[in-house]
Amino acid sequence: MKEKPLEHQIYVSQIFSIILAILLSLGVSLHYNLVTKRNSLDMNIKNAGIFISGLPEVADMLKKGQPSEAFNKRMDLLVKELDYIDVVTICNNDSIRFYHNNKALIGKTFVGGDETAILNGASPYITNGKGTLGSQRRAFYSIKDEHGKIIGFVMVSVLTTSISQLTRNILLVFLLLALVLLSMGFLVSGILYNRLKKILLGYKPEEFRKIHIERKEVLDALEEGIFAINTEGELILINESAKKILDLDTMPEYGTRLTKLYPETRLPHVLQTGMPEYNISLMIKGKHIMSNRIPIIENGKTAGAVSIFRNKTEYTRLAEELTGARYMVETLRALNHEFKNKLHVILGFIEMGQPEKVTDFIINTSMASTLAVSEVTKQIQVSSIAALLIGKIIRAGELGIRLTIKPDSSCLESQLHLPVDLYITILGNLIENAIEELNEQSSGIKEIEVGINIWQSGSILSVDDTGRGIPAAMRDKIFEKGFSTKGDGRGSGMCLIKKLVDQHHGIIEMESEENTGTSFTITFTEEEHHVSGNHYRG
Question: Residues in domain PAS (predicted)?
Fold first, then answer.
């Protein structure tokens, strides 16, 4: 059997609950009302019986043994004033009626037989008897003379038909009330249903449920981890990737405090400040993570915060391999180019008939190249960075520029705390700028010195050259996109360096002196929110 739509189930449940509540409340109220009304009728006939049996005229009439016309008229007026009283009769010890509000029954014997107990001295009581006018609810009270002797009784009753009619009237009122309440229930259910639909952005609950499931499947399919919190710091969203990155055994429940799952999170800080944080590098459970933290703004107020993060460990490894391969190729191209040049020099010596110079040239060149490669690989043990430096050393050497590595430089693969392509991009651009600057000089010393110091909690990169220096008027502009002294279409390298340093909360320091040279030093630490900036001296 096909399951009913969710909105149909909600609507039916609401109606059923309303009907059940109405029936229960009205049932209890009806029972209470009927019992109360019955007790009220009993009280009426009791009070009437007590009042009439205590009238002196009643005892006098029974002692005389003759009905009184004047008394009967007064009794008729009294009976008319009594509510819910159908029959009043006064009888003597022989059950002969001396008064009855139906005059045709005066002088006749009382019918029913339930008066015997009262004539025998019983306390006043109420019975369900049957008289001349039909079934009745009767109250009996004895009438005594001045000596306490029973000389008759009073019977006050309400007909069962009157009770039934009163009950029907009450039932009718309650039925009408039930119909009104049911109508209001249907109306309120309709209003609530439309309100719910409005809250659900116009979707039916079943449609919204389907959309929610589909979107959750999409979120779980993403490689990016996502979790969000409300203003109380409680989890309102988490996808499967976030669960894996955080190494959680089971999917946490809605409302779980994020700090219990991930105590180091800074998402509550974003919630408090209302300021987003982008491209934050951090480590979670030994994984290199890049995170964006964004506040959720609703009607101008912060309603929560969401963190979107990516596991960069595998991507970084692949990028490092690809980057290393690229610089290896460039290095091989540079070596090939240099090899051709050396061959041309050797060929020239042979043509000139100077074979002894060929031997000296080969020995000196081989020693220089071997020494350069050996020094770099000894200090720099990250292959992609070493390949970059070797390539740059060879390229600089071809242009008559001496490029060396500072003796205290050190770079181990196990010490890297930032992506290797970050170091390659920064060093590559700085060295290339220095090479181009020195290549434009026609005279003077042409030297570049590169320093690389990387340890687990930080790193320092430096590139010094003996170029013409940067004029003071240009120093504030060198990191602007498109600014260059080398012509149009240039000026992107230093802008890129500035962007990368800012993203990883580093510091750029520049010292420059005209006709002496320029020095760039870039420092990174593990402090996530280290203030970045440029410091110019010179």
Answer: 216-266
pLDDT of 36-65, one tens digit each? Answer: 888 888 888 899 999 998 888 899 888 888
Phi, psi angles (nearest 5°) of residue 446: -120, 95
Amino acid 366: pLDDT: 47
| Reported confidence tier of residue 368, pLDDT bands at 50, 70, 90 | very low
Contacts 24+ apart (CB under 8 A), 358-363: none
| Higher-pLDDT residue of 445, 373 | 445
Whole-number Å distance between alpha carbons of 355 and 495:
51
Residue 28: count other Cβ atoms within 10 Å of its Cβ: 10
How far is residue 267's CA from residue 501's CA, in Å, rounded to a whole number?
23
Is residue 140 pLDDT above 90, yes or no?
yes
d(CA 270, CA 303): 11
Tokens of 447: 């030297």
Per-residue pLDDT, 360: 62
Indicate if the alpha-carbon torsion angle 443, 477, 281, 530 is positive or negative: positive
pTM of the model: 0.41
How far is Cα 64 from Cα 99, in angstroms, rounded to an integer?
14
How would DSSP label each residue in 383-444? HHHHHHHHHHHHHHHHTT-EEEE-TT-BB-GGG--S-HHHHHHHHHHHHHHHHHHHHT-SSS
The residue among 155, 184, 203 whose CA lies nearest residue 46 is 155
By the 8 A CB rule, do 204 and 242 touch?
no
Q: What is the full DSSP assignment across 305-357? A: EEEEEEE-HHHHHHHHHHHHHHHHHHHHHHHHHHHHHHHHHHHHHHHTT-HHH
Residues 6+ apart with CB under 8 A from 261: 235, 246, 248, 252
254 three-class SS: coil
Count of CB atoms situated within 10 Å of the CB of 242:
26
Q: Which residue carries 């900036």 as its tokens?
A: 533
Give yes or no for a contact between 53 and 142, defined as CB atoms under 8 angstroms apart: yes
517 DSSP β-pair partners: 513
- Using DSSP's 3-state secondary structure scheme, residue 278 falls into strand
